[in-house]
Design a protein that fits this description.
By secondary structure, the chain is mainly α. Helix content is 71%, strand content 0%. The chain has ten helices and no strands. The chain has helices at 9-23, 30-37, 41-48, 51-74, 82-98, 107-113, 120-142, 148-170, 175-194, 200-203. The chain starts with 8 loop residues before the first helix and ends in a 6-residue tail after the last helix. Mean pLDDT is 88; it is low at 200-204.
């Protein structure tokens, strides 16, 4: 039918997302995107707009896909088991890093690090994604009845650790090294909860280092 798109939008966005994820915004050219998606420049522009617009679509797609997985992992915190929830949260990141079908690292983390050279709209979207992750973590930690300041501080710490896992994976850190980083953070959180007499049975699964 005349005028009907002859491609699957989701497939094209996934291909573009992986290309941006692998090479970064600055080092991905329109020719790279054409090669990755199978669409010529004219089709890319008419369907998705300019490079910034396409990147925003890909960033949103990434944030929703992995955000949903983080949300599901942290939902166990609603039943009063924040340690299990945070461990499951980290597992989402570790499994993504170990997945050979996608690049190492994190598209949100890469975008956040490149904000000085990105458009304000892209920079703002990356900041929003990190802030949403922080808010999800804080909600999970609130079930442990930590003091407001402690819940906020640990949410900030875990957000930073999660982003650092992505950076370390790009630097070829092994899964063993990444899991050591997670274990240290989990032990620190367990100590904080144990010191308040919270859930000793669960805390023993994450003994203080």
């Amino acid at each position: 039918m005349a005028g009907k798109k002859q491609f699957d939008v989701d497939t094209v966005l996934d291909a573009a997302m992986v290309q941006f994820w692998r090479a970064g915004y600055a080092d991905t050219s329109l020719d790279d995107l054409s090669k990755a998606t199978g669409l010529n420049r004219s089709s890319l522009y008419s369907s998705f707009g300019d490079k910034d617009s396409l990147y925003l679509r890909c960033l949103d797609r990434y944030a929703v896909r992995y955000g949903d997985r983080y949300e599901q992992a942290l939902s166990s915190g609603a039943s009063g088991e924040p340690l299990r929830a945070i461990q499951a949260f980290f597992e989402v990141t570790l499994q993504r890093i170990a997945d050979p079908a996608v690049p190492d690292g994190c598209l949100v983390a890469q975008t956040a690090m490149a904000t000085p050279v990105l458009s304000p709209a892209i920079a703002a979207r990356a900041i929003e994604a990190v802030a949403l992750q922080h808010a999800r973590l804080r909600t999970a930690l609130n079930t442990a009845e930590l003091a407001d300041g402690d819940a906020e501080n640990y949410a900030t710490h875990i957000t930073a650790v999660n982003q650092s896992l992505a950076v370390m994976s790009r630097a070829r850190a092994s899964q063993k090294q990444l899991r050591t980083i997670v274990d240290i953070s989990m032990s620190a959180l367990s100590r904080a909860l144990h010191s308040r007499g919270w859930k000793p049975d669960e805390a023993r699964r994450f003994p203080p280092a």
